[in-house]
């Protein structure tokens, strides 16, 4: 089987679990004997584009003639059985679906966020969950609130893109929803349930969990408001210093000053900055509990699965897909200061059974072997209906 994988990589300045997932799936597919032909564009390259392409960049989400021609050439040369699309913005565009179908190639898309409906893709605005654009043919609230990159002009382009490609998205042959939460989002958008398959991401097996159960709490995420760092720190302050062990914060983003200030104010808060994969694995294995205090409709949560793989229970909020992922391998609480403060106290008590449950959940649902088998099954379903 030959599969073309299309993805617009996010900038290196914007930490992206999606980039990591795409890279990992390509490696997994190749290990399983699938011939993978990458069609990758990188947002870091925008500054090096020729002047004409740079001038027309604002229109790329609707239609990018250069990438459309390049994809057509790749399809003619390699004749893949399937096009697997991930993120199309800003350099690819949903037009890739039309190009593939014009060449007789079925399309599968993994849906990592809510951008079929929501301009920034997060269903989160001004500190709260927002569904104002759901059900609208033209998502004008996104323009009104400058939801995309804080710009009304860019939000207008994205709103026009979403309106223009409603019909395009309905022609995708199969959608891979990371969780049931994402599947429900697609079905509410009008995608037939039979075209939506729930397939979580898989992560590499880090090996048997360490014998010790670790200590303290780890928060590892992009430091942006929807990830809940501010609420977590307010909850942490409800407890006297050192009574819960240490809270380690890993990641980078707009709220980095918040993390740095907390670490300067309390001896039981450590800001570790952005960690490479090896350091992140060590941080997860060294913690007793991984805390995921998201405030938005989290569509997946890679850090949850990484915690389970390392036999670490998770304290999460009842938002989005977190309860679906955590299951009985941790605790879920309301996304409030009171909820998290109580959850921290409960999760701080030793509970060896949850560590065993965490690892079992990983082995049953999130290994690379499980992931790649599901992927190949989906490809087969659209090539041999």
Brief overview:
The chain has 2 domains: 2-112 and 173-202 and 368-383, 3-Layer(aba) Sandwich (Rossmann fold); 217-365, Glycogen Phosphorylase B (Rossmann fold), CATH 3.40.50.
CATH superfamily of the largest domain: Glycogen Phosphorylase B
Briefly, what CATH class of the largest domain?
A: Alpha Beta
Radius of gyration: 21 Å
Name the beta content range: 15-25%
CATH architecture verdict of the largest domain: 3-Layer(aba) Sandwich
Q: Helix/strand/pairing class, anyone? A: alpha/beta
Order of helices and strands: EHEHHEHEEEHHHEHEEHEHEHEHEHEHHH
Question: What integer is the average pLDDT?
Answer: 93
Give the low-confidence spans: none
Query: What is the spatial order of strands in the main beta sheet?
Result: 2-1-3-4-7-8
**Tally of alpha and pi helices:** 16
Indicate the percent of residues in helices: 40-55%
Global outline: globular
The name of the CATH topology of the largest domain is Rossmann fold
Q: How far do the termini sit from each other?
A: 15 Å
Number of strands: 14
Largest sheet: 6 strands, parallel
What does this structure look like?
The chain is α/β, with parallel strands linked by helices and 385 residues long. The chain folds into 2 domains: 2-112 and 173-202 and 368-383, 3-Layer(aba) Sandwich (Rossmann fold); 217-365, Rossmann fold, CATH 3.40.50. The chain is 41% helix and 16% strand. The strands form 3 sheets. The protein has a 6-stranded parallel β-sheet, with helices on both faces. Helix 13 (322-326) links the parallel strand 13 and strand 14. Helix 9 (229-236) crosses helix 14 and helix 12 (302-309) crosses helix 15 (352-365). The two termini are 15 Å apart.
């Amino acid at each position: 089987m030959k599969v073309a994988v299309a993805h617009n990589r996010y900038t290196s300045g914007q930490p992206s679990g999606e980039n990591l997932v795409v890279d990992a799936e390509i490696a997994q597919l190749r290990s399983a004997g699938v011939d993978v032909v990458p069609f990758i564009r990188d947002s870091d390259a925008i500054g090096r584009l020729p002047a004409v392409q740079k001038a027309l960049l604002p229109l790329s989400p609707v239609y990018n003639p250069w990438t459309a021609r390049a994809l057509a050439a790749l399809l003619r040369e390699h004749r893949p059985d399937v096009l697997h699309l991930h993120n199309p913005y800003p350099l690819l565009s949903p037009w890739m679906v039309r190009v593939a179908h014009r060449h007789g190639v079925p399309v599968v898309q993994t849906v990592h966020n809510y951008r079929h409906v929501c301009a920034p893709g997060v269903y989160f605005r001004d500190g709260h969950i927002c569904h104002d654009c759901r059900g609208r043919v033209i998502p004008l609230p996104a323009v009104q609130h400058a939801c995309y990159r804080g710009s009304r002009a860019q939000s207008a382009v994205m709103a026009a893109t979403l309106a223009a490609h409603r019909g395009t998205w309905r022609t995708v042959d199969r959608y891979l929803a990371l969780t049931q939460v994402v599947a429900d989002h697609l079905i509410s958008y009008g995608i037939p349930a039979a075209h939506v398959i729930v397939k979580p991401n898989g992560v590499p097996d880090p090996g048997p969990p360490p014998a010790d159960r670790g200590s303290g709490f780890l928060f590892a995420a992009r430091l942006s408001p929807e990830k809940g760092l501010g609420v977590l720190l307010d909850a942490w302050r409800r407890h006297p210093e050192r009574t819960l062990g240490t809270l380690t914060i890993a990641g980078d983003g707009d709220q980095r000053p918040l993390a740095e200030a907390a670490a300067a104010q309390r001896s039981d808060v450590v800001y570790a900055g952005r960690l490479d994969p090896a350091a992140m694995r060590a941080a997860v294995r060294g913690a007793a509990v991984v805390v995921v205090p998201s405030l938005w409709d989290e569509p997946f949560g890679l850090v949850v699965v990484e915690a389970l793989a390392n036999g670490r229970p998770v304290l999460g909020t009842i938002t989005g897909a977190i309860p679906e992922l955590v299951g009985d391998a941790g605790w879920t609480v309301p996304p409030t200061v009171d909820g998290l403060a109580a959850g921290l106290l409960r999760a701080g008590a030793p509970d060896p059974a949850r560590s065993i449950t965490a690892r079992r959940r990983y082995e049953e649902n999130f290994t690379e072997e499980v992931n790649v088998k599901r992927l190949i099954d989906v490809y087969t379903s659209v090539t041999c209906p």
